[in-house]
Specification:
The chain is α/β, with parallel strands linked by helices. The chain folds into two domains: about 80 residues, Orthogonal Bundle (Methyltransferase, Methionine Synthase (B12-binding Domains), Chain A, domain 1), CATH 1.10.1240.10; about 120 residues, 3-Layer(aba) Sandwich (Rossmann fold). The chain contains nine helices and five strands; from the N terminus they run ααααβαβαβαβαβα. Strands 2-1-3-4-5 form a five-stranded parallel beta sheet, sandwiched between helices. The longest helix has 24 residues. The protein is globular, with a radius of gyration of 17 Å. It starts with a helix and ends with a helix. Bound molecules: CO-5-methoxybenzimidazolylcobamide. CO-5-methoxybenzimidazolylcobamide (B1M) binds next to helix 3, helix 4, helix 5, strand 3 and strand 4.
Length: about 210
């Protein structure tokens, strides 16, 4: 079994200590943070996602795997922080109302921080009003909204509408993402940008502040 196969298996079993040790070993062996995240951590959770969809595993197993994944991401985050190149701009980030998924959002945050942005992470299940309040108080250059459920996508639109009503829409760029979100949806709701993955989100944010 390759190292990444072992990492994926440990992740699917929710073995946080194993995942941590394997991520550290892979990075020490010269793997890049992106390789570890793409080939080990994300690949593992997506494989588990298929089992979840087919009712072969249930929410407790997925939560254990998510915890193991976050343990691995914490190691990656330390490596990326060491490469930091100074603050580019402030970004407020969060997962929209009624949505508890945070793995992708956290990955986006880690990549943004790793490329020099200051990230204020509001967490998950964030009420739309709280995003507006954060834009007023933090004055970020970018507001980044994540949604993983088709049922929570309308809240992405709600945030943009509330920003308009509050007279704050022109003060901030809004970028959106998450598995069910598309460029077409982003255009429909008047977002400033859409990114399909964490790497693209970083490139998009950089292009919007330059
Ligand atoms: Co949930 N879940 N889940 N889940 N879950 C999905 C999303 C689902 C596709 C599974 C399935 O049925 N195949 C499905 C959604 C169907 C739909 O709406 N289309 C689903 C469902 C139905 C549910 C529940 C309703 C299940 C239930 O209770 N019956 C429930 C809802 C809870 C809620 O939120 N209110 C639920 C619960 C959960 C857990 C809590 C058990 C757990 C979340 C744990 C956690 O996040 N801490 C969970 C998980 C883990 C998943 C799957 C398996 C994996 C999601 C994930 O982390 N992917 C997922 C299946 C799947 O995606 N194949 C599934 C890995 C992650 C790196 O990818 O989040 O897409 P992703 O992020 C990517 C990009 O999307 C992008 O960059 C990231 C990295 O490259 N991105 C952005 C994300 N945000 C971005 C923001 C940006 C730009 C890019 O700019 C701002």
């Amino acid at each position: 079994m390759s190292n990444y196969e072992q990492m994926k298996e440990a992740l699917k079993q929710g073995n946080a200590d194993g995942v941590k040790a394997m991520v550290e070993a892979a990075l020490n062996d010269g793997a890049t943070a992106k390789e570890v995240v793409d080939n080990g951590l994300i690949a593992g959770i997506l494989e588990l996602g298929v089992l979840f969809k087919n009712n072969e595993v249930y929410i407790p197993e997925v939560l254990m795997a998510a915890r193991a994944l976050h343990t691995g991401l914490d190691v990656v985050k330390l490596v990326l922080a060491e490469q930091e190149v100074g603050s580019k701009a402030k970004i407020v980030l969060g997962t929209v109302k009624a949505d508890l998924h945070d793995i992708g959002k956290n990955l986006v945050g880690i990549m943004l921080e790793g490329s020099g942005f200051e990230v204020v992470d509001l967490g998950i299940d964030v009420p739309s009003e709280k995003f507006v309040e954060a834009v007023r108080e933090e004055k970020p250059a970018i507001l980044a909204l994540s949604a993983l459920l088709t049922t929570t996508m309308p809240y992405v639109k709600e945030v943009i509408e509330l920003l308009k009503e509050s007279g704050l829409r022109d003060s901030v760029k809004v970028i959106v993402g998450g598995a069910p979100v598309t460029q077409e949806f982003a255009d429909q709701i008047g977002a400033d940008g859409y990114a399909p993955d964490a790497g693209s989100a970083t490139a998009l944010a950089t292009s919007l502040v330059n």
